[in-house]
Amino acid sequence: MAVPENSIVRAVVAYIFREESAKQAATREGFSAVTMRRWLMDVGVHVRTTAEQRVLDKAHGRYDQAAALRASWQRGDFDTEAYRSTRMKGDWGFARDGENNPFFGRRHSAETRERLAQYARDRAIASIGEYGPEWTEEFRARIVARDGSICAVCGSTEMLQVHHVDLDRTHSHPSNLLTLCAACHLGYHGRGERADDIAAAHASILLREFGADPGRR
């Protein structure tokens, strides 16, 4: 079925001037993102990569990584039980072997690999130090219970973890700990997101649990 010309024009205007994604602009007008990208390429318009579009969506307030991760969990994109059982081993519950790997049979150039690695390093926020003997399941459970068994940022009750606010794993005083869901926790450490929300939640915990003066920590 032919797409009306005015629909094409509206979609292209949204893509170029409102900096919407090809998928968003095309879907609103009733045709596919593939068709949209083909038209853009035919007329010589640069088709943005996913990373480029994500930067624009963040700038326009249209993208929330933590919310996107939570939505993925809710859709069942990830195996929650596998995540829980493999998290400490570092493979995060994703099936990555052989044909299960989305990059199976594909290879980035050395330049692309370095660029992606540097981009990840630039936005990641790493923790330091090693966990002490006090860092037990029972200890973490007490912190989660203290915080009402919900993520202090988004209120989720799924996949709760305990975050070191000052990033120092050796500093496990309760005043330095905050309950976060996996999505918010990963969004912060992996992408440098939610920093303001975490700071506000931490200040609220300090006020509630330790009084108005943070120096009492």
List keywords for this structure.
single chain, 217 residues, mainly alpha, elongated
Overall mean confidence score, pLDDT = 81
Number of strands: 2
List the strand order in the largest sheet: 1-2
Our count of helices gives 10
Main sheet: strands, sense, barrel: 2 strands, antiparallel
**What percentage of residues falls in helices of 4 or more residues?**
40-55%
For the record, give the distance between the C-alpha atoms at the N and C termini, rounded to a whole number: 67 Å
Describe the fold and architecture.
- The chain is mainly alpha-helical.
- The chain has three domains: 5-59, no CATH class; 78-123, no CATH class; 137-216, no CATH class.
- It is built from ten helices and two strands.
- It has a two-stranded antiparallel sheet with strand order 1-2.
- Helix 5 (65-75) crosses helix 9.
- The protein is elongated, with a radius of gyration of 22 Å.
- The model has no long low-confidence stretch (mean pLDDT 81).
Task: Chart the SSEs and their pairings.
Elements: H1 5-17, H2 22-29, H3 33-42, H4 50-59, H5 65-75, H6 80-86, H7 110-123, H8 137-146, E1 160-164, E2 177-181, H9 182-191, H10 195-210
Short synopsis of the structure:
The protein has helices spanning 5-17, 22-29, 33-42, 50-59, 65-75, 80-86, 110-123, 137-146, 182-191, 195-210; strands spanning 160-164, 177-181. It has 217 residues and is mainly α.
